[in-house]
Amino acid sequence: MQVVAFSTPTRPEWRWRIVDYEGAMVEESYETFRSIATALTDGTRRMGELTVKDLAERSQRFVGRPSYFRGR
After folding, report:
1. What is the tens place of the pLDDT at every residue in 43-69?
2. What DSSP state is assigned to residue 26?
3. 33-61 burial, b for 16+ CB within 10 Å, e for fewer?
């Protein structure tokens, strides 16, 4: 899982959001923060408290040559 911080033009204060590797939101803060660093610190703390496991698979890095090069 990842912690991201965001703000919007209508709400310029920072909030955090915990997302899994598929991009689905797990949890979002209702509290606002003055800085991005503070939001990320609090979100990381909260992620450590969660008992939710991220079952999404991370994308695999490409290893080897693409199939269209193999016959050459």
Report:
1. 999 988 887 766 665 555 555 555 655
2. E
3. beeeeebbebbeeebeeeeeebeeeeeee
Place of tokens 């997302």: 19
pLDDT of residue 45: 92
Residue labelled with tokens 């991220």 = 54
pLDDT at residue 35 is higher than 70: yes
pTM: 0.69
pLDDT at 25 > cutoff 70: yes
Domains in the chain (CATH in brackets) are: 2-53 (3.30.160)
Residue with tokens 């660093």: 37
56 within 8 A of 21, measured Cβ to Cβ: yes
CA distance 27 to 53: 13
Closest-CA residue to 52 (of 22, 28, 15, 20): 20
